[in-house]
Design goal:
alpha/beta, 6-stranded antiparallel β-sheet, 969 residues, elongated, 33 strands, TIM Barrel
Length: 969
């Protein structure tokens, strides 16, 4: 047995009681039907009507439940139901009945499916048929029941323990068949080719719906998902609000067609049985789904968790809980540990590191979270069993440490440690968790709203990742620019800033270098120029050699011996004898020998250059001696020649510094231009991101409003590139704006005004390019003209522009401090402005309840990661819980796992929770799990009434109080 086998077995056992969506076909014909073997297209598909082949097909079809409904026959269906029950296969016996209703419908034949519990006796089913129908052995399947009131027949099926389904209602044999009311003559059918006015068609449709309700059908069959919206309604019938489920018409007339998954209905049941089917059809909004409703690929989910505390220090001594893949609810009195479990999940997934995102002025959310964790998880080990999208199951394990925000290790099922340093960074274990009032805090932050909205846009993530990458490259390139400016500054400072005397030295030399004196030094100057070239080569070679020597001085064992001295005696002994140590020593020697080879080659190059330069030194010396001999005793010429020589030496030193400076200036400009290119690419990418967001805006608004109530409309305020709050702050705080240049810039709100005209990158380009026109202009904001005038813009650019020409050194120069401020300004993040509006008002200006109601659809819709919420009803009134929150949870739980802790019975009951975890508080500040199961279990219902409704008696009293004022049965 592997490390986690016991935990997995326990969780799987718990999940057996979890209600889940099962694949169901309730309209299948066997070889007993006269038209068996016909394919969906009406052609003969199978001629073999062997019952054993049919039985084997059911055994291997992969469906959780099948109903065999032959035309006017049920004998084989009953026989198969009994025999397959022993193999754990749920086959419900039934019959497709041909019925001609009583007048005025007696001109038309309709088909009705009557379905009965597993192992039902054929004799019991036969009792629903009138005596006029012959015995089954004599039936062809084309017999009809005539002159029977439809509602009375449906009632008969119900009294005999069956379900009644209106079969393929949109076909010629179906119930609908263009149906209408003519005056006071009652319900009539009209010919299919009769054309009716639109208003009359609408009237007919409404009357038909009402008629279906009055007939008492348990469900209706429709041909496809497109037909479903026409039959999902609620109608007041006989003083009650009722609804009727639509299921997919399979109507397979051969076993081969049973495999068409697009015609399987998904029905939520804790167990594949008639009783659960009957119960599920009573709640079609949450328990009946079509294939289109169910994700085509697996969604990630938390299978379950375990919390074990050492010496009983934690709130739970031992807790093991399994979760449904759909909706799981924690219920229990206050102090029973609901929030403690959610906080354990937060800690195990490393989400404590994100607590800063929910810190708000005037709130203590972060403090409350940490306090709760410390109080309930002390000394506890948390294990989360997680199923990834590739269906691989891993275990996330963390021992709670209040001083450590992340302490999680990941294991496979065999207990092997997976090399995962951060479960969130990998993207393999996504979850979204919202603790106390955290949903409401989202409404205060447009930036977090924008992040959530972005998750609703396909393929946008890759663009956002590219944007992050570009900003990172810009920062890296800025650092290279800063390194280059530092080297430029160093060159300017060499030899007491001798480079800045270049013009002086050049003028001195030109004054002294008369034609007569210049003629004496022609050969000397030529030799020195050659020395300059060779000196450059030698400098490059020396630099390369120094880099190689740095590599050669490195030692793999640096610091290791000192570390070993501080370790245990056993480890020191191991270190002294380990073979690996000897192997590494040998390999390090080999590496040192390899590094020596290029060092030797470069040493030879330098030696050769030294020899050539020495020869040139000798030539210069020789030529200088010749000059002295030529001058002889002419003191005037000797003075002039000596002064020219020293002036030349000074000029050559300054010129060498200029050459070094100009070489570095080329490197500097290359880096700066690369930064500019990245900035321009970022501008283009941001524009593309804005266009994608703008294009998707209407679609997202429609998506968010599908769960809104009549008195709330959600919209999105969108401003392309208009989120420049960080830009304003940065511009006003980094020294680019100065009083000397632009006056009292804070009082004039100059940073804000500039931000309305330019992005950070556009402003940086203005300052770099000494171009005030980019930040000069006027814009209208809320009927007010906001302007940056040309004088102010020019003053700002002039004061902040980092480049000038150093006249003394005759080189371009840069103010490194100004340049750094500009480049950092260009890297300031700006983005599109997106804010959620509720009834036209920004949610950050509304009440906590209004903020929560607007944010709930957003957090539920954005992705398929498990969604965990602590008390989602917080800040919402019961009306919104019942009308919106329940709809959101019930509709989306098939697309993503939802886990909530709640005190509101509407979430558990109306949300049709597949798994309810009942917690209770014990003495000594401890908690325990009392019961786990779906809402279908009587025990769960009792707990819900006791905990959430105040007990049965309180529930009865409230019900009695409400009944006189409500139109309920």
């Amino acid at each position: 047995m592997s490390t986690f086998d016991g935990l997995i077995m326990t969780l799987e056992s718990m999940r057996k009681d979890v209600a889940r969506f099962l694949n169901v076909v309730l309209h299948l014909h066997s070889p007993e039907s006269y038209d068996y073997g016909r394919g969906f297209d009406g052609t003969v598909k199978v001629k073999d009507k062997d019952e054993n082949t049919f039985r084997a097909g059911i055994e291997n079809c992969g469906l959780s439940m099948v109903a065999v409904t032959d035309h006017m026959k049920s004998n084989l269906a009953c026989s198969l139901s009994k025999s397959l029950a022993s193999k754990g296969i749920c086959l419900l016996p039934g019959m497709e009945i041909n019925l001609r209703p009583s007048a005025p419908l007696n001109s038309f034949r309709v088909h009705i499916l009557a379905i009965f519990p597993e192992c039902y006796a054929h004799e019991q089913i036969t009792r629903i048929l009138p005596p006029s129908v012959p015995a089954e052995c004599s039936r062809s399947g084309k017999e009809q029941i005539t002159n029977v009131d439809l509602a009375s027949f449906v009632d008969t099926v119900h009294k005999h323990g069956g379900l009644c389904i209106a079969a393929h209602i949109d076909t010629d044999s179906g119930i609908r068949k263009t149906f209408r009311q003519l005056g006071q003559d009652g319900i009539l059918f009209c010919a299919l080719n009769e054309v009716l006015p639109i208003e009359q068609q609408r009237k007919i449709s409404e009357e038909f719906k009402e008629w279906l309700f009055l007939a008492g059908f348990d469900a209706i069959e429709v041909a496809s998902d497109r037909d479903r919206p026409h039959y999902r309604w609620i109608s007041n019938v006989q003083g009650r609000q009722v609804s009727i489920p639509a299921i997919l018409r399979n109507d397979s007339h051969c076993i081969e067609d049973l495999g068409d998954k697009t015609l399987h209905t998904h029905i939520k049941m804790a167990k594949a049985c008639f009783e659960d089917l009957q119960r599920a059809l009573q709640f079609p909004d949450t328990r009946v789904r079509f294939p289109i409703d169910v994700p085509s690929t697996p969604t990630p989910s938390i299978v379950g968790l375990e919390i074990v505390s050492a010496e009983g220090k934690g709130f739970f001594t031992t807790l093991q809980i399994a979760f449904s893949d759909n909706l799981s609810c924690f219920i229990g009195p206050r102090g029973s540990g609901k929030s403690a479990i959610i906080e354990s999940i937060r800690y195990a997934f490393g989400l404590n590191r994100m607590l800063g995102q929910i810190e708000q002025s005037g709130t203590d959310l972060v403090k409350k979270v940490r306090s709760l964790q410390e109080a309930t998880l002390a000394g506890s080990v948390i294990r989360i069993v997680y199923r990834r999208t590739d269906n691989e199951i891993n275990i996330l394990e963390a021992t709670f440490d209040p001083k450590q925000d992340y302490a999680t290790r990941v294991y496979d099922l065999t207990g092997n440690t997976l090399e995962i340093s951060d479960v969130q960074a990998t993207g393999r274990y996504p979850i979204r968790l919202f603790g106390w009032s955290e949903i409401e805090t989202l409404g205060r932050e447009p930036q977090r709203q924008r992040d959530l909205l972005d998750r609703l846009i396909p393929d946008l993530k890759s663009m956002l990742d590219k944007r992050t990458e570009l900003r990172s490259k810009m920062a890296e390139k800025r650092r290279e620019v800063e390194s280059s400016t530092s080297r430029l500054t160093g060159i300017l400072a060499k030899n007491s800033s001798e480079i800045r005397r270049y013009r002086e030295y050049k003028a001195d030399f030109e004054r002294l270098n008369t034609p007569e004196i210049d003629g004496l030094f022609v050969q000397i100057d030529a030799a020195k120029e050659k020395q300059t070239i060779l000196g450059k080569l030698r400098g490059n070679a020396v630099h390369w050699l120094e880099e190689l020597e740095q590599v050669g001085t490195r030692n793999i064992f640096d610091g290791v011996e000192d570390m070993v001295k501080e370790l245990s005696e056993a480890t020191r002994a191991w270190w002294g004898t380990i073979d690996l140590r000897t192997t590494i020593l040998g390999q390090q020697t080999e590496a040192e020998d390899e590094v020596k080879k290029p060092r030797g080659i470069l040493g030879a190059v330098i030696q050769k250059l030294d020899q050539s330069m020495k020869a040139l030194d000798e030539e210069v010396h020789k030529r200088e001696m010749e000059v002295r001999e030529k001058i002889g005793q002419e003191v005037t010429k000797q003075v002039a020649a000596d002064l020219r020589r020293t002036a030349d030496e000074r000029l050559q030193r300054a010129s060498q510094l200029r050459r070094e400076y100009n070489d570095e200036w080329i490197v500097f400009n290359q880096c700066l231009n690369q930064w500019r290119d990245l900035a321009q690419e970022l501008v283009k990418l941001q524009s593309n991101i804005g266009q994608v967001r703008q294009k998707q805006k209407d679609k997202i608004e429609s998506t968010l409003n599908q769960y809104s109530t009549q008195d709330m409309t959600i919209s999105i305020l969108f401003g392309p590139g208009q989120d420049r709050a960080k830009f304003v702050d940065h511009l006003g705080e980094t020294g680019i704006l100065t009083r000397e240049a632009v006056g009292n810039y804070r009082a004039s709100r100059l940073a804000w005004r500039i931000s309305l005209l330019c992005t950070p990158i556009e402003t940086a380009k203005s300052l770099l390019g000494n171009d005030a026109s980019r930040i000069t202009g006027r814009v209208k904001i809320a009927d007010t003209d906001v302007e940056v005038d040309a004088k102010t813009a020019s003053a700002l650019v002039s004061s902040a522009h980092p480049f000038r020409h150093d006249e003394e050194a005759d080189v371009p120069s840069v103010d490194s401090d100004k340049l750094e401020r500009i480049l950092r300004l260009g890297e300031v993040e700006w983005d599109d402005f997106e804010s959620i509006l509720l009834n036209g008002k920004p949610v950050d200006t509304l009440s906590p309840g209004q903020r929560s109601s607007a944010m709930l659809p957003l957090i539920a819709l954005v992705e398929d990661a498990p969604l965990i919420i602590d008390q989602p009803e917080d800040n919402l009134d019961n009306r919104l819980v019942g009308k919106m929150l329940v709809d959101v949870l019930a509709s989306l739980k098939e697309k993503r796992q939802i886990i909530v802790a709640t005190h509101n019975p509407n979430i558990v009951v109306s949300g049709d929770s597949e798994q309810v975890i009942v917690l209770d508080a014990l003495s000594g500040n401890k908690g325990t799990c009392k019961f786990v199961g779906s809402i279908d279990k009587p025990e769960i219902v009792s707990w819900v009434i006791d905990i959430m409704e105040g007990g049965k008696e309180a529930f009865r009293v409230r019900s009695k109080r409400y009944r006189p004022h409500l139109n309920v049965g």
